[in-house]
Specification:
Hypothetical protein af1432, Double-stranded beta-helix, NE0471 N-terminal domain-like, 17 helices, alpha+beta, 3 domains, 4-stranded antiparallel sheet, single chain, 6-stranded mixed sheet
């Protein structure tokens, strides 16, 4: 059969020779592909498409491989929930700070809310200066600016920046004079006894979408006209020229830059064009001030607001200085938040897959032993935990035999070494560090090593373990044992091996996989 778009298909070969299996990065340049590339052979079945290329390379594309990650970077309106104030009548997207830190599912919910709705509030963040930096670093990195790594929002004498006064501030985005603009902003309330000083948010994507519906020409004008934004003080002079409504190449709303205080003199338009621009600008400003779009709430001490500064416009009511109001803020970026969210979801999915394996195949026979495969591994994890082993070693003990799943354990008993330690380590390396995977990879060589280093160790092996020892190469030679012992993970592998041999007691029962999930998730992050 012929294949369509051969260069596209060959460029996306998923094999380990073409891509690093951990990072997904390609190992070749597109210019390395030969001229007149064709498929010499191509066959397709339920599992996928296999292609032998004219340069001799063979590729396999599993069914559905090209359907993954179709949501792009989640930055445009199509990856968002556009909202009005009434949509949060039942409450804001929020979570307790301690729960957010302790429960990955809670963190996933908070970060998902920021990415989809544009904001979330963390309650109970300790009322301490600089704590806002810890919030930002819980999902990414702090963006340093001319204000430093953080800034104080409070009344300052002779303030240069309007934010550091007690005046009301209309809906706006921050730092439109930067390129790139900080994509996330955090505001942590340390004090708010003032009369007034309530916070407000407007979904800028929703406001822009309304402008597009009501006045398409005004929308198009604001989307194509570069606007000069500028900020200057004694130590900074920042300028950027960008449209108020930024679109992606397909025409979807991707960014809002809206800050009346920071617009410099527009000199590129004249006559009727200039009048049309200001009519569109005023129309858009009016939409952002519609009561139904303005979500108002009050931040109290310990509340930390996280919001998308490329999408949401934030505002503040005026307040009386006598009561005292102090927020600390910092900037961060959406790419790191999205990365953290994706990794968390991936790790939770991997743990769900592991738990399903323990409950499914793990309930089956374990190489002729008196316990099931899952009971054996769970007992090993419990023994490591009882020995006060480091978390990584507990995980290694728990997961050391997952290479036996998918029927490979039967291959071993039938007389073929399934190299289950290496198989397990390769699978686990997607999510776990070498402190987990290396003891797993080496736990079979550790058995061979112990049979040489400790003459009485062989007598402790179960009949099934004696049988597999022969298939795995038998006891090491003295030279092999000396080389093994010098390795950086030899002691850990030996520890896992000892728990492996001891974890075969049918009368001992076993803990549940769920008991180990928090430990495993912590190691994954």
């Amino acid at each position: 059969m012929s294949v369509p778009h051969p260069y596209w298909l060959r460029d996306n070969c998923p094999c380990a020779e073409c891509r690093n299996p951990r990072s997904g990065q390609k190992r070749f340049q597109v210019g390395d592909l030969p001229d007149d590339l064709t498929a010499a052979e191509a066959t397709e079945d339920g599992a996928g498409l296999s292609v032998l290329w004219s340069d001799g390379h063979r590729s396999f594309y599993p069914t559905g491989w090209d359907a993954a990650d179709q949501d792009g970077d989640h930055r445009t309106e199509h990856g968002k929930r556009l909202w009005e104030a009434a949509d949060f009548a039942r409450g804001l997207p929020e979570a307790d700070w301690s729960s957010y830190l302790a429960d990955p599912e809670e963190k996933i919910a908070v970060l998902s809310a920021v990415r989809r709705s544009g904001f979330a509030v963390l309650r109970g963040v300790p009322v301490e200066e600089r704590r806002v930096l810890a919030v930002a670093r819980s999902f990414g990195y702090v963006r340093d600016t001319n204000y430093g790594e953080l800034f104080d929002v409070r009344v300052e004498p002779d303030a240069v920046n309007f934010a550091f006064t007690d005046a009301a501030i209309a809906p706006h985005t921050d730092n439109p004079y930067r390129d790139p603009v900080p994509t996330l902003q955090l505001l942590h309330c340390l004090r708010n006894e003032a009369a007034g000083g309530d916070s407000g948010l407007v979904d800028g994507f929703r406001a822009a979408a309304l402008l597009r519906e009501e006045d398409p020409e005004a929308f198009a004008l604001l989307a194509r006209t570069p606007v000069p934004f500028r900020y200057r003080d004694r130590t900074a002079d920042l300028a950027a020229e960008m449209p108020m409504i930024g679109l992606d190449p397909r025409g979807a709303i991707r960014e809002i830059r809206f800050n009346n205080r920071s617009i410099d003199t527009l000199r590129t338009l004249h006559g009727a064009e200039l009048d049309a621009f200001y009519a569109a600008y005023r129309r858009f400003a009016g939409i952002t001030l519609r009561p139904e779009l303005q979500l108002e709430f009050r931040l109290g001490p310990g509340d930390c607001l996280i919001f998308d500064n490329t999408r949401l416009l934030h505002a503040r009511t005026a307040f009386e200085q006598a009561g005292g109001r102090h927020l600390q803020g910092c900037y961060a970026d959406l790419d790191s938040l999205s990365s953290t969210l994706s990794v968390l979801r991936r790790n939770v999915a991997a743990l769900d897959e592991l738990e399903a394996l323990f409950a499914g195949e793990g309930a089956g026979e374990y190489l002729g032993e008196a316990v099931t495969m899952a009971e054996h591994m769970l007992q090993a994890g419990r023994l490591a935990r009882a020995a006060d082993a480091p978390p990584a070693l507990v995980a290694a003990a728990l997961l050391h035999d997952i290479g036996h799943f998918h029927g490979s354990g039967l291959e071993l008993m039938a007389g073929a070494d399934n190299r289950h330690g290496a198989t397990a380590a390769a699978w686990l390396s997607r999510c776990f560090p070498p402190t987990v995977t290396e003891p797993v990879r080496l736990h079979v060589p550790a058995k061979r090593y112990l049979c040489t280093a400790e003459p009485d160790y062989f007598a402790k092996l179960s009949p099934a373990s004696v049988h597999t020892l022969g298939l795995q190469g038998g006891p090491m030679t003295s030279a092999e044992a000396e080389e093994f012992a010098a390795g950086p993970f030899a002691a850990d592998a030996v520890a896992v091996r000892r728990w492996d041999e001891a974890a075969k007691d049918p009368s001992a029962g076993a803990p549940t996989f769920a008991e180990f999930r928090p430990l495993l998730l912590e190691l994954m992050s």
